[in-house]
UniProtKB/TrEMBL annotation:
Name this polypeptide is given: ABC transporter ATP-binding protein
Entry's family note: Belongs to the ABC transporter superfamily.
Domain ABC transporter: 32-256
Keyword terms: ATP-binding, Cell membrane, Membrane, Nucleotide-binding, Transport
SUPFAM superfamilies assigned to the protein according to its UniProt record, in alphabetical order: P-loop containing nucleoside triphosphate hydrolases
GO molecular function annotations of the record: ABC-type transporter activity; ATP binding; ATP hydrolysis activity
Any GO CC annotation of this UniProt entry: membrane
Record bears the keyword Amino-acid biosynthesis: no
Length: 464
């Protein structure tokens, strides 16, 4: 393996034998040997389940890689093979350097030992001497922040306390490779923030990260490449933003397959073809110079949905309803989403999401959010959700606000969905478009200046 690589997986596969009855396991152990000895064809008494099949990827030193996929797709199996707790059926995986893994809650802890004793136990398993653990103990205890519970048995801990202590030990050993599974999800928001800050520091210091999460935004922002697993196979491998989009497509297709099984004639997915270079828009590009291919051709490569209500266009407008690509904080910002039906529709929600060029979701909001407020106040008769729209009808929804955003390039995503109930509890995406439109926000530094991603409209007062 190259010295520049931290992890290399080649044709990695893992097969499990599934026995219908306990006695079949004994049959498989005895009968094939007898059958082979007397020259008879051997019989198989189990079914094969391939948790992983021919997985290939390489991770460079210091790289942050996300692994995503539905439950049962093989993510945990892959991590266990990489960390050495499982042996592959075929293929190989090579790793270079010390690996710290946070896989299953409390793995490596003895429930009868105190937290303090488990710190030393876990540290020794990671290759640290007692003197090294002594040196790091205060930092570990401070990060875990569980107070007097540190001297209580682990079996008395809550799930959040266990993951606090486990994460504190893993990150303080400064591993070459850090593997993090969904365990962090049990922590509170403040602790998760501290964890992500620590992970980002480790990555910036050269630690290789394998990060598994169902939070698509975390994968997009914390990693630069990602692997999508589906039924044990590699479905996508590339930049995190592209793989997350493919994951959303996969989830949508599976959702549509479920709904299609409930109706006689499944809805047809409408596809369009287009060709625009993904790198055509640079962060400092004058957006007003980008032609209509960006909002039409580019977005048609990044869309999915059933198609009986489709988004036909998204426009960014100024206070005079003129197309505009550059705004300043405080300017009126309007985003108009044009739609068309191919059959009668109702119970709709038209929504937008705004992201900056770093991929961070700044805001998401839809007509259903407004409808829910109207319903709460007892004035839901005129809600958009109750509106009946005819076949082949064209309509638009306009979102308007005073621009509160900081200086950056922003992407608009647009979606129209069917909401079975007006509360986001039963949603079906009808059409989704990534990169539906773009705009920039610039600051008039001589008039008004602030730092950060949004303007909190702060005012200062002082005493005489």
């Amino acid at each position: 393996m190259s010295s520049e690589l931290a992890i290399k997986a080649v044709n990695l596969s893992k097969c499990y034998h599934i026995f219908e009855q306990p006695r079949d396991r004994l049959k498989q152990f005895i009968y094939p040997r007898i059958q082979g000895a007397i020259g008879q064809p051997t019989k198989q008494y189990y079914k094969e389940f391939w948790a992983l099949e021919n997985i290939n990827f390489e991770v460079a030193k210091g790289e942050a890689v996300g692994i995503i996929g539905r439950n049962g797709s093989g993510k945990s199996t892959l991590l266990q093979i990489i960390t050495g707790t499982l042996t592959p059926t075929s293929g190989s995986v090579e790793t270079k350097g010390r690996i710290a893994a946070l896989l299953e809650l409390g793995s490596g802890f003895n429930p009868e030992f105190t937290g303090r004793e488990n710190v030393y136990l876990n540290g020794s398993l990671l290759g640290l001497t007692t003197a090294q653990i002594d040196e790091k103990f205060d930092a570990i205890a401070g990060f875990a922040d569980i107070g007097a519970h540190l001297d209580q048995p682990i079996k008395t801990y809550s799930s959040g306390m266990i993951v606090r202590l486990a994460f504190a030990v893993q990150v303080q050993v400064e591993p070459d490779i850090l593997v993090v599974d969904e365990a962090l999800a049990v922590g509170d928001w403040l602790f998760q923030k501290r964890c992500f800050q620590r992970i980002e520091k480790l990555v910036s210091d050269g630690t290789t990260l394998l990060f598994v999460s169902h939070d698509q935004e975390s994968v997009r922002t914390l990693t630069n490449r990602a692997l999508l697993l589906n039924h044990g196979k590699s479905q996508a491998w590339g930049t995190s933003s592209d793989v997350v989009l493919e994951y959303r497509r996969l989830l949508h297709e599976e959702e549509m397959a479920y709904f299609s099984s409930l109706i006689p004639e499944p809805a047809k997915v409408v596809h369009e073809t287009a060709s625009v270079d993904e790198n055509e828009i640079e962060p400092n590009t004058d957006i007003s110079a980008v032609d209509s291919r960006v909002s039409n051709a580019r977005s048609s490569q990044l869309e999915f949905g059933e198609g009986h209500v489709r988004i036909t266009g998204v426009r960014v407008l100024d206070c005079n309803d003129q197309d505009c690509a550059i705004f300043s904080p405080g300017d009126t910002l309007k985003i108009r989403v044009h739609c068309k039906t191919s059959e009668p529709a109702s119970n709709l929600n038209v929504a937008i999401r705004i992201r900056n060029k770093e991929g961070v979701k700044i805001y998401s909001w839809g007509t259903l959010n407004q409808d829910m407020s109207m319903q709460f106040s007892g004035n839901s008769d005129k809600s958009f959700w109750r509106k009946n729209i005819s076949k082949n009808e064209e309509f638009y929804v306009q979102f308007e606000c005073d621009c509160p955003l900081g200086m950056n390039l922003y992407e608009v995503q647009a979606a129209v969905s069917h909401e079975e109930t007006p509360d986001y509890s039963n949603q079906r995406i009808l059409h989704w478009i990534d990169e539906a439109a773009f705009f920039q926000v610039l600051l008039r530094k001589d008039e008004y200046f602030f730092g950060g991603i949004c303007d909190l409209r702060v005012h200062a007062q002082w005493s005489n």
